[in-house]
Design a protein that fits this description.
The protein is α+β, with helices and mostly antiparallel strands and about 160 residues long. The chain has two helices and five strands; from the N terminus they run αβββββα.
Length: about 160
């Protein structure tokens, strides 16, 4: 069960923080706590000193499989996300992370991905995204597996 501290939690920027290196557990219960976590994550992303397009729960200290992201200028949640398909080739570009302020790291990512999961009410979600939203989705999925941009990652493809 997720318990939420109502104080606004900042985004963790200590690269050694254990939450950033832990494999997150799936959400098993859809209740007010999940919705509260989603709203708290969106609030943290909006309060970020740099423009945020996505955030993973471990970045505010919750090791559960929840991400929030923007699509069509609207914040959305994806709970227990799974990468279902990668396509469109790969591209290596500099990437930044809210938990590693001021750092830009080259990372090769798929140009398009399809992910599935649930929304904050437990309803099924399937998203196919391209370009920067696809990069962000792959980035946040790595956070849920305890990986940072600075970690050695297995080769994609």
């Amino acid at each position: 069960m997720i318990t939420i501290d109502w104080a606004v939690r900042p985004i963790i920027t200590d690269a050694d923080h254990p939450a950033l290196h832990s494999t997150c557990v799936p959400v098993e219960q859809w209740d007010g706590n999940v919705r509260d976590l989603v709203h708290e994550m969106i609030d943290a992303a909006r309060r970020s000193p740099v423009r945020a397009i996505s955030l993973a729960a471990p970045q505010i200290g919750e090791c559960v499989r929840v991400i929030v992201y923007t699509r069509n200028d609207r914040w959305r949640a994806l709970i227990n996300p799974e990468l279902r398909k990668t396509f469109g080739g790969e591209e290596e570009l500099p990437e930044e992370c809210l938990s590693l302020p001021g750092r830009s790291i080259l990372r090769k990512r798929w140009l398009s991905v399809t992910v599935t999961g649930r929304d904050e009410r437990g309803r099924p979600v399937r998203e196919t995204v391209h370009g920067w939203p696809a990069r962000a989705m792959q980035h946040e999925l790595e956070h849920l597996d305890g990986l940072l941009l600075t970690d050695d990652l297995p080769a994609s493809g």
